[in-house]
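Continued from yesterday's entry.
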Amino acid sequence: MLKSYFDKLLIEAGCDEAGRGCLAGPVYAASVILPKNYKNKWLDDSKKLSDKDRYELRPEIEQKAITWAIGVVDNVEIDEINVLKASFLAMHRAIDKLKQKPELLLIDGNRFTPYKKIPHQCIIKGDSKYLNIAAASILAKTYRDDYMKEQALVYPQYSWEQNMAYPTKKHREAIKQFGTTPLHRLTFQLLPRQLELDLK
């Protein structure tokens, strides 16, 4: 069972992102404040759960959370500021939308750009340690997947409904054959060196 809180006395928001390693599309982040007494033995790091389990847990999180929100940074912004900064910006945008102000931010990972004057705690593998970070990881992942499935209807050659724009062999073969879309991150190495295109 994951931990319910880091500090029992503070209003804590768990934060996580999805899509940092993708070749196309936005980075999504979520921020979630759960009740201190919330328990759920099924809730875990989104990467450890099946697609079906993530989508079953999403409405449970949304209904039981005190407040939750999604933040998005698109591929154009990612190319402008780099994907790490984009991940932090997406978290900031999610925190901005929370209906209750948190007193402590629990961040999945080892780095974060401070948000206003709210203290934060970076927790490596936090999505497998704290319920609110795990909840954020599930929301970020499922909302981003929804978006990529929609875009797969516009750009069917890239199989985004299956790979979610991660650098799979099939995705890279499609880039080689069809070139890039307006959603591709042009600062990323889209193809292995021996297959590079002139993407200018």
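--- second protein ---
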Amino acid sequence: MRSGKIVIAVFTGTGNTLLMADALAGELRAAGKGVTLAPMERRDVFESRAEAQNADFALGIAAPVACFSTYPTAWRFIDSLPAAEGREVFFLASMGGAGGGMEGPVRRVLEEKGYMPLGALLVRMPGNYGNKTINAGENKKTEAKAREKAKKFARELLDGTARWGRGLPLLSGFLASMAHGRRPWDFFHSMFPIEALAEKCTGCGLCARICPEVNIEMADGKARIGKDCQSCQRCVAFCPAGAICVPLKPSVQYRGAPLDSILSLIGEGGV
């Protein structure tokens, strides 16, 4: 990596991606790089920070895997990036299971815009679906391994040994195309609808403040999830009362990063 300054654009649901991005950023800073983290859902913040660092900066993209692709919030950011002439770029992703070669379509979009791909890393992390119980000790081990992998990836970016795959022929491109529309997200939400339980909701409004799709409203002092949910799990992970969940699907709340880290990333104040 030749660039001395780096902006890492982050989209995170449960906080897993932010945990990894923080670890990667720390390793790059230790090597003397200037690193800034910026939220994807607020593109104006990213642009102003990028401009403040002049034109000579590398771009990092950090987002979760979802539906073997990534969320609409992340795709809107990637698709809206301006053309570049050889700007260095790398990709970091957390996933619940398999990535499905989703790094390939991301690479193709960036290459078409003139970016220079340095490397991509996908790492398995815990999630909020199907957690009847949570083994906190095992999750801590998984998180620690993810941080170490992110640090190793940073070192590979620095010495030029990082790799970025091109995905699965046809399949990963098809899945990315589907992820750009509402169909997979509407289907997933119909199968596992996220709802705010009125009897538990305290009306604090935190979920509405941190929803990346501005899809939660407060009505009569209670949270209400809208129809454009992308099931990113951010509200599930960070509701202080544990009031947001998939009804009739017992689960224990999991978050990969502290709430303060999310609020700092997206520019919100404290609770």
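The chain has a mean pLDDT of 89. Strands lie at 5-10, 34-39, 58-66, 69-70, 88-95, 116-124, 195-196, 216-219, 222-225, 244-245. Will compare against the first tomorrow.
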